[in-house]
Amino acid sequence: MSTTRKIAGAALAAAVGVSTLAACGGGKKDEGSAASGSPKSKTVTLVSHDSFNVTDSVLKEFEQQSGYTVKVLKSGDAGAALNQEILTKGSPRGDVFFGVDNTLLSRALDNGIFTPYEVKGLADVKPEYVLDKEHRVTPIDSGDICVNYDKAYFADKKIAPPQTLDDLIKPEYKNLLVTENAATSSPGLGFLLASVGKYGDEGWKDYWTKLKANGVEVVDGWEQAYNERFSGSAGGKKAKGDRPLVVSYASSPPAEVLYGEPQPAEAPTGVSTGTCFRQVEFAGLLKGAKNEEGGKALLDFLVGKKFQEDMPLQMFVNPVTKDAQLPELFTKHGVVIEKPETVAPGTIAKNREQWVKAWSSLVVK
Fold first, then answer.
1. pLDDT in the model for residue 208
2. Please, where are the H alpha helices in the chain?
3. How many CB atoms lie within 10 A of CB 351?
4. Which of 50, 106, 118, 284 could be joined to 137 by an S-S link, Cβ 3.0–4.6 Å?
5. Any bridge partners for residue 97, and if so which?
């Protein structure tokens, strides 16, 4: 899932207990120059949001085959990580940036932080995900931002869980939903865009007026919403969260199963399939990268089958290549969203700032 995200979205894996990677393959020494990232260096640095993860053996195979050592520099959520790269434009902290999604893509491209590069495996990527024809960024994963529900709560109350955006403004769901701030969180922004996709530029404000009247709670980010306020997650139970509805991802249920102690036969959470927004995460070669060749090799790896099939249970996102297979746990407990809400990247670019500003005035202030 930001993406950031997955997320980035894809933020889920880090939040439910997967160990972070401060630096991968760090036991190797740079060859050639003593300065990491110099033209002769064999270290390639990937800058990402906090939720990037990869199986050690998969990464080591790339390192052995390519001769490069990969260093992962995690930089907060997707928005914060992107902001840092914009501020260091031309003198980047790494060689490749991973985690900018379609909600923030125009901001990254307009600021010119990437060098175009067409990856070797681009023909294997599903064409609907290739949103930048100049190849400044390459699609890496996709996921759906959706409302999740606590199955036990709705079973105990004998209330059918909501399935659509319209359902969320009904009286029976008053004071049950927690969402993230659209100004500070990728899933929060995605949920706002779901309402824009559903109700249009004229109708989304009226929808949020009704949602606010129905007691929606807004918190800063996904971690707080899902792991503190949501009653259906393992973290939320420990924190005594009392909101049985949360904006998260369609892939949240498999994560709850995988990291459950003991592992449950069925996911304790469900997905409201009519509330979703499709998120796509990208990676790109940073302009001014010290190890440009290493960065290109790393981008090729990220769209390769080995990494694409490793992602689902590492970052709880979907692969974007045609032949990548999903693991059984992911297909059994995950949900396929047939008709997510979408908003064209150009429309997002043109309106994102004013939408967020209007949303903040309407819902937060």
1. 98
2. 12-15, 56-66, 78-87, 105-110, 151-157, 186-213, 222-224, 234-238, 252-258, 292-302, 305-310, 312-315, 328-333, 345-359
3. 15
4. 284
5. 47, 284
Cβ atoms < 10 Å from Cβ of 164: 14
- pLDDT for 9: 37
Sign (positive/negative) of CA torsion 335, 223, 137, 95? negative
Question: How many whole angstroms separate alpha carbon 319 and alpha carbon 303?
Answer: 9
With 0-12 CB in 10 A as exposed, 13-18 as middle and 19+ as buried, what is 83?
Answer: middle
Dihedral, 114, 308, 329, 226 alpha carbons, nearest 10: -10
pLDDT computed for residue 10 by the predictor? 36
- Which of the 8 DSSP states describes residue 340? -
Q: What is the pLDDT of residue 50?
A: 85
- Residue 30, amino acid: D
* C-alpha to C-alpha distance for 254 and 123, rounded to whole angstroms: 29
Q: Which residue has the tokens 């290493």?
A: 294
By the 8 A CB rule, do 93 and 72 touch?
no
Give the type of residue at 293: E
> Global pTM?
0.81
- Written as six digits, the tokens of 39 are 């033209």
Say how many CA atoms lie within 13 Å of 265 toward its Cβ.
0
pLDDT less than 70: residues of the chain = 1-40
277-319: pLDDT as tens digits = 999 999 999 999 999 999 999 999 999 999 999 999 999 999 9
